[in-house]
Amino acid sequence: MHELPLVFFTVLAQAAAGAYLILLLSQPVNGMGERKLSIGILVSMALLSAGMLVGMFHLGMPVRALNLLAGIGRSPMSNEILLGGAFASFGVLVGLAGFYGKGTAAQRKALRWVTAVFAIAFVATIPKVYQLSTVAAWNTPHTTIQMLVSVFITGGALAAVLGAFRHGIAVSIAAVFVTLALRFDYITFVTGVEPVLAAQQSSLWVTQAIALLIGGALAFFALMKQKSAPPILLSVCSLVIIAELVGRVSFYNLWSITM
């Protein structure tokens, strides 16, 4: 599958951005120490970097990513690359600054919020790359909704693993509920515009739904028990990321130019 690098890039990047935002927003409430927060940020940035590295293989030659920067401001893909790079760079910087205690507390806090702005702009730009009038199955609000909800499904689970247990799990559960609630309408739309391609994705859609249901059930169990057992949280995180990877494969499989 030619788009497989993009599958990993988009899902892992969204997970990293979601985790960063949830870790940052929950810290004042859960009392997480700055060092632990910084470790969580650095792990998120490592995941983001891995996704970006894999994503470059879609271009054939990674150096072509530099050529795409010529379209900044006009091309959603160029904006995506720029904002992703800015988020990764600032994320690593703020993670290292917090871990080693560089600068004043006020400076580190300000830098974390600047990075949050880049994270939000980055994940908001990703769906714009796929809002194409020539691809009927993508030309729908469902494309934007699914990709933004994915930020919270995967990001929430990852944040729970990295220390924001209650907030991360709660966000992930809520996002799983939203995406499953919208599933019927989405499949109905895709079946209407691309019936043949839609039929070919049925097994992937079922697999994604099952993984999300199991992951959501485990997350709910952990939340009710109020126990942040690492094996359970890792299982939840793995399940929802796998589910979103499978769902993203089905999304790219729907690519078809409308004549």
UniProtKB/TrEMBL annotation:
Q: Name one GO cellular component term.
A: plasma membrane
* Database matches in Pfam families: DmsC
| GO biological process terms, semicolon-separated | anaerobic electron transport chain
Key word Transmembrane present: yes
Task: Cite a single GO MF annotation.
Answer: dimethyl sulfoxide reductase activity
Please indicate if the UniProt record lists Transmembrane as a keyword.
Answer: yes
User: What domain of life does the native source organism fall in?
Assistant: Bacteria
Q: List membrane-spanning regions.
A: 6-25, 37-61, 81-101, 113-133, 145-165, 172-193, 205-224, 231-255
The alphabetical list of record keywords is: Membrane, Transmembrane, Transmembrane helix
Q: Which InterPro entries match?
A: DmsC
Stated name of the protein = Putative anaerobic reductase, subunit C
Identify the species of origin. Photobacterium gaetbulicola Gung47
